[in-house]
């Protein structure tokens, strides 16, 4: 069950670069089979509105591992503006980037034995990641309506990266709710906090590459083949992203999931699980409830996780405050091999669909509404083809997500 990966904008491509660096280490092994096409090149499409990020990516991953036609670059950035990213500098250029992206994805799909879906990596705040990313997701869903479509979206720091970021996040979240089947949402503030906890110092300077690496480790923990999902012959089919979707985001109204990842070289599984839950509790209120969760344990080379599983499950159920109406809220996957780059280290990746997402959505709604009511910066959106109806629909859509989550955990 093959997956095509699409990276959009600077954020999406930088995270993708970190992920593919890990995957390339598996190229000549059976674990790498789901990620390479029939030409032994990565089954990925890289899109940006300007070429500099893609040039660096090509150098880092080596062009022999990438299809030439899958590096798609425009000539001008999108100015951190959703409308400019969605509609393009000109209609001709916007359509060209979209058409080239859809054509590149189609070529990859045609090489798949059993195409299952598309994973799109992008940011919520950048003009390219949010605007062009939203338009690409819309077009891909239009061209491939039956396969799954998952978004890996990165939210900006709450303190502010751009005066337009709350508008961009609002509009992009609305498009994701409408056109994607699941959203793995990484919040920069949460990622930074988790890294600070792991380094045992809140004053430590955390770099952007370290944050990208953490997100990449989370994705690798979820997407790389596991013994639990691989069928008996031992040949991975790459079903992990879509089994994750079915386990964590089965309902269209509540499709936002969050991830944390912990590595421990000499720690027991119960201790790693305790650290993971401790981090989860520090980031969530006691009122937040989890609808469902998937726990992926890697580095289980002694096959001892099953002995700890009942205790780990009790910790997860209690720590995540799972809803009463789901009788089996936690799913477990294991793999004997550690993540690439973490030799002989155990790792635990926890993916939850929980009502804590409403705190972030409320923040976006509040900030965007304040600016909208004051008519601040709206001329930049009208100028590039956005309409008042786009904002009205987006406010309604995101408010409905909040309402659905609160209804689900009542």
Q: What does this molecule look like?
A:
The protein is of the alpha/beta class and 410 residues long. Helix content is 47%, strand content 17%. It contains 14 helices and ten strands. The chain has helices at 9-24, 52-61, 82-87, 91-110, 127-143, 165-179, 188-198, 208-223, 240-248, 269-283, 305-319, 357-373, 378-383, 388-408, and strands at 2-8, 44-48, 71-73, 115-123, 148-155, 182-187, 256-264, 290-298, 330-335, 346-354. Strands 3-2-1-4-5-6-7-10-8-9 form a ten-stranded mixed beta sheet, sandwiched between helices. Helix 6 links the parallel strand 5 (148-155) and strand 6 (182-187). Helix 6 crosses helix 14 and helix 12 runs antiparallel to helix 14 (388-408). The longest helix has 21 residues, at 388-408. It is globular and about 60 Å long.
